[in-house]
Specification:
Number of domains: 1
Largest sheet: 4 strands, antiparallel
Subcellular location: Cell membrane; Membrane
Catalytic activity: a quinone + NADH + 5 H(+)(in) = a quinol + NAD(+) + 4 H(+)(out)
Order of helices and strands: EEHHHEEHHHHHHHHHEEHEEHHH
Enzyme class: translocase
Helix content: 55-70%
Number of strands: 8
Radius of gyration: 30 Å
Oligomer: single chain
Distance between the termini: 86 Å
EC number: 7.1.1.-
Structural class: mainly alpha
Shape: globular
Subunit structure: NDH-1 is composed of 14 different subunits. Subunits NuoA, H, J, K, L, M, N constitute the membrane sector of the complex.
Length: about 475
């Protein structure tokens, strides 16, 4: 197949391959059901382990032991916490919308599990006499399915905040929804480069296309943007602004308790595994063995059930990054976080996608029979690469200049006045360097006189004095 593109003076003919998917022809329905249950158990066990892992690692980073009582090395502490959540009293606010209040945590949790259905956990293996991929399902637009399901999960957040019937959950739901949607845009744009390199949106086809080179190398900038956006997408530190204990008392799930709160907690961790699994699939070769290991013996250490081992190892590498960020970085300010997403990540990712499109078009054009032309002139790969890099650098420089200009304008607006009243707020305030004290006016001088009243003085002075003192106190 071939695709002809003509827009804004650019003409090219890019060869395209078919969009293959995994072969499920020898997979009966009952085997698909077994794989669905296996994925569910895999994610639940991984969630129990990662909560324990997070508490232990952060404990070591803060020079404390972490959980070490329930079970060996504290491994059963997460299970004990889950049982405690089940036994807690489930409280529903009087002003809550009962049906939506219950439906919101279910949406947030189930959507996280659905996204994992298109992730290939390994190659083709033999199960109960059938040859089947270690993947529940695959479609030609599997990656878009993940983004769509993540967008549906946002409904759980906004509905939880609205249905609680309280102000703080509503504010938390609005803020969290704006954050997730904003960073989903940059996340989707960062994946376009992978589609251009692989020529497919199927996860199994993208993994197969990385047999010789992982896409973390040619799409390094997309990988960096994706890592940033996946942290913002999952509301993890330093981007856990959805909870914001200092200003929102807990965010959209403030009014939730017992297992309803646990469903949000579970959905957050499953989302962490989902975005980490997608990063492993798109940038790190998926279930394939590392290049040095695959050179030794790809059949023994790279295929079959070994793929599940390599996939899990890569997945937990990203989980360690989540934990490391939480133990190292403080929470950022909300306006800075949103400005970074809208004014830097999205524009520069757009420029990167355009650059990759030109580079990929030039490579395919010069390696195939067609040519990439602009205004009637043939372009070399080196020219396209240089122009693309210069465009990305210019965009980054423009953003930095605009940010510094805004900072200078804010600093000028916050210039302290030259003359201040030290008693303006009711207590003496020393002047800053370059400031001088204002001359006291008669009204200010009288207001600075202390008014002392005692019970004995009021009784001695009589009713008129007591009334005058009360009027003065009232004034």
């Amino acid at each position: 197949m071939s695709l002809g593109l003509t827009a804004y003076g650019v003409a090219a003919t890019l060869p395209m391959t078919e969009n293959p998917t995994a072969d499920f022809s020898d997979t009966p329905w009952w085997l698909s059901l077994i794989k669905a249950v296996a994925i569910f158990v895999y994610l639940l066990i991984s969630t129990l382990l990662v909560i324990w892992f997070e508490r232990r690692v952060i404990g070591r980073m803060q020079q404390r032991p972490g959980p070490n009582r329930n079970g060996p090395f504290g491994l059963l502490q997460t299970l004990a916490d889950g049982m405690k959540s089940m036994l807690k009293e489930d409280i529903t606010p009087a002003r809550a919308e009962k049906v939506i209040y219950t439906l919101a945590p279910l949406i947030a949790a189930t959507m996280a599990f659905v996204s994992f259905a298109i992730i290939p956990l390994g190659g083709t293996v033999s199960m109960f006499g059938h040859r089947t991929p270690l993947q529940l399902t695959d479609v030609p637009v599997a990656v878009l399915l993940v983004l769509a399901v993540a967008s549906v999960g946002v409904y759980g957040i906004i509905l939880a905040g609205w249905s609680s019937g309280s102000t703080y959950p509503l504010l938390g739901g609005l803020r969290s929804t704006a954050q997730v949607i904003s960073y989903e845009i940059a996340m989707g744009l960062s994946l376009v480069a992978i589609f251009l390199y692989s020529g497919s949106m199927s996860t199994s086809a993208i993994v197969s296309a990385q047999s010789s080179l992982w896409y973390i190398l040619p799409a390094f900038f997309s990988f960096a943007v994706y890592v940033i956006t996946m942290v913002g997408e999952t509301n993890r530190l330093p981007f856990d602004l959805a909870e914001g204990e200092g200003e929102l008392t807990g965010g959209f799930h403030t009014e939730y308790s017992s297992m309803r709160f646990a469903m949000f907690f579970l959905g957050e961790y499953i989302n962490m595994f989902t975005v980490a699994a997608l990063a492993t699939t798109l940038f790190l070769g998926g279930w394939q063995a590392p290049p040095l290991v695959s050179l030794i013996d790809d059949n023994v250490l790279g295929g079959g059930w070994w793929g599940l081992l390599w996939f899990t190892a890569k997945l937990w590498m990203f989980m360690f990054v989540f934990v490391w960020l939480r133990g190292s970085l403080p929470r950022v300010r909300y306006d800075q976080f949103m400005r970074f997403g809208w004014k830097f990540l999205i524009p520069i990712t757009l420029a990167w996608v355009v650059a990759v499109a030109f580079i990929r078009g030039a490579q395919l054009g010069f390696l195939g029979d067609s040519k990439l032309t602009f205004a009637g002139r043939e372009l070399s790969v080196a020219t396209v690469v240089i122009v693309s890099i210069v465009a990305v650098i210019a965009l980054a420089a423009a953003w930095i200049w605009d940010d510094k200009r805004a900072a200078r304008a804010a600093a000028e607006d916050e210039t302290p006045p030259e003359e201040i009243d030290p008693f303006e707020d009711g207590y003496p305030v020393p002047p800053l360097p370059g400031q001088r004290l204002a001359e006291p006016t008669p009204r200010l001088a009288s207001s600075r006189q202390p008014v002392l009243t005692t019970a004995s003085a009021s009784s001695t002075a009589g009713p008129s004095t007591s009334t005058a003192v009360k009027e003065e106190d009232h004034a």
